[in-house]
TrEMBL record:
Keyword Membrane: no
Superkingdom of the source species: Bacteria
Molecular function GO labels: dioxygenase activity
Protein name: Ring-cleaving dioxygenase
VOC domain residues: 6-130, 151-268
Keyword annotations of the record: Dioxygenase, Oxidoreductase
Stored InterPro entries: Extradiol_RC_dioxygenase, Glyas_Bleomycin-R_OHBP_Dase, Glyas_Fos-R_dOase_dom, VOC_core
Keyword Lyase attached: no
């Protein structure tokens, strides 16, 4: 049976592009590893943040669009994006959020404590201490590497058909059901990061897409051969996956599971260093070759953004 290690990346809608960079790079300390465009809407950035090289399991991506309508978090979406921080880092992050005037609360489930807050567009985020996962080597804006976000701890899914979503997680994606409490069911992949998924046990009501909501969640395929096997499997069980799509930094296939959530399966290779040197990741606007003839027009239509240090209150 095919099994995914866990999350490859999560993609969300947000508003202001510079505020997005200031928060996820300046406040959370993630590295902007790729600045490109939405291949289906080239007037919109596609920004990728992660650890020092954007390893699978660390990548959060955004479509920022000024004056975008505000979404409503709910069924058919990833409702919470969870980041893993090193053991002993919760106090550091609590003080850091306080220093930026970011409201937060502490919650718990399955014996773990989570620090919950929202980004400027309303995306719901949590931090959780985890022993597992390779430490990040990226340090920025006052975040030492010993407290830096490692990547994803996992995610909470909000399904409008919970039993069907859980069936897909367990029987199709190969995650293991490991616990149930307080209306949530927990699943776990075999990877050491981005591998813990919580799902509502009872059906949720639909959310609305827009700024502050997740567009899709992508699961890992270790290579191109396994990726083709995933597509064959999905077709066999009736999910009508898309053809394989070249996203430059990974290959992708998409399908919508019965609980309304858009799932993607993405390849670990080739990664983000295929068109920029490691030390220059995220510093240039990278376009696929079919958009290069329109570079001047595309650049004129995009807002100027920069990765910069930001100050607290």
């Amino acid at each position: 049976m095919l099994k995914t290690a866990g999350i490859h990346h999560i993609t969300a809608f947000v508003n202001d592009a510079q505020k997005n960079v200031d928060f996820h790079a300046g406040v959370l300390g993630l590295r902007l590893v790729k600045k490109t465009i939405n291949f289906d809407a080239p007037e919109v950035y596609h920004l990728y943040f992660g650890n020092e090289n954007g390893s699978p399991g660390t990548i959060i991506t955004f479509f920022p669009q000024e004056n975008a309508r505000t979404g409503k978090i709910g069924g058919g979406q990833v409702s919470i994006t969870v980041y893993a921080i090193p053991k002993g880092s919760m106090e550091f992050w609590t003080k850091r959020l306080d220093s930026f005037g970011i409201r937060h609360e502490t919650t718990s489930r399955f014996g773990e404590s989570f620090l919950r807050f929202f980004d400027p567009s309303g995306l719901q985020i949590e931090l959780v201490e985890r022993e597992e996962g390779t430490p990040s080597r990226w340090s920025f804006n006052g975040i030492p590497v010993e407290h830096a976000i490692k990547g994803f701890g996992g995610a909470m899914l909000s399904s409008v058909s919970s039993e069907h979503t859980m069936m897909v997680l367990e029987k199709v994606l190969g995650l293991q059901r490991v616990g149930e409490e307080n209306g949530l069911v927990r699943f776990q992949g075999f990877g050491d990061i981005g591998n813990i998924i919580d799902v509502n046990a009872k059906n949720a009501s639909w959310g609305n897409s827009g700024a502050g909501t997740v567009h899709h969640i992508a699961w890992r395929a270790k290579d191109y051969v396994e990726h083709e096997q995933w597509r064959e499997l999905l077709a066999q069980v009736g999910f009508k996956p898309t053809p394989v799509i070249d996203r430059q930094y990974f290959n992708a296939i998409y399908f919508r599971e019965p609980g309304g959530i858009l799932f993607e399966i993405a390849t670990d290779p080739p990664g983000f260093a295929r068109d920029e040197a490691d030390e220059e990741l995220g510093t240039h606007l990278m376009l696929p070759e079919w958009y290069e003839p329109q570079r001047d027009l595309i650049e004129q239509g995009l807002p100027k953004i920069e990765v910069r240090e930001v100050e607290g209150i």
